[in-house]
Amino acid sequence: MESLDLHKITVRELNQFLHKELPGKGVKKLEILNPDGVHSIAAGMDTEVDIDIQGHGGYYVGGMNKHANITVHGNVGWGVAENMMSGTVRVKGFASSAAGASGHGGTLIIEGDTSLRCGISMKGIDIVVGGSIGNFSGFMAQAGRMVICGDAGDGLGDSMYEAVFYVRGNIKSLGADAQIEPMTDADYAAVQELLNRAGFKHDPKEFKRVAGAKKLYNWNADANQEY
After folding, report:
1. Which helix (H) or strand (E) holds 15?
2. Could you give the CA distance from residue 104 to residue 146 in angstroms, rounded to a whole number?
3. How many structural domains compose the chain?
4. What would the DSSP string read from start to end of 50-96?
5. CA-to-CA distance for 122 and 138, rounded, in angstroms?
6. Across the strands, what pairs with 5?
7. In a domain, 219, yes or no
8. 111, 90 in Cβ contact below 8 A?
9. Per its UniProt entry, which superkingdom is the organism in (predicted)?
């Protein structure tokens, strides 16, 4: 296993190594030491490799990830796994705002809580949160799934499209066009699959399904701007 120490190299040098040199070295596992909350660690990955970040990360850890499996042994700042395409990003601690924003694919697993706007503009990513999520999460979520093992704040799923959320705890309020729907056998199976992927032990029957009512898909001239 290769080790890279951010007390000895800069984040720019780290990411340049990950992008330019790593693909030809045949390394399948590496660790990043002393991250100390710096930003953009392992952003733009395009290689199948397991990366362990041994400490806290700043903004955009694992942003635009493709193929890599990244584990953060600590907390992260804004935009973890932002615009992720594939692979896995796991945060062993807590995540700040906009976790998984605009994610197209792959799996984001957060073992603790997240702050505001988790999963905004999701485009196919799967997100599993072991704790609770903050206000306005899932805003304009277009595709993908989110499993929330704790509570959800205000405005969950505001203006959501085809994404589906599963919430185990309390929902403070739903956003425009979001609604609670009956769970089906397919939903229970989906929740179980995502829980297994994350390593969380919950009963899928404890979860509620939240999806869009699709009333915002077309302009309604008679609504008088009230939706």
Report:
1. helix 11-16
2. 13
3. 1
4. EEEEES---TTTTTT--S-EEEESS-B-TTTTTT--SSEEEESS-B-
5. 7
6. 33
7. no
8. yes
9. Bacteria
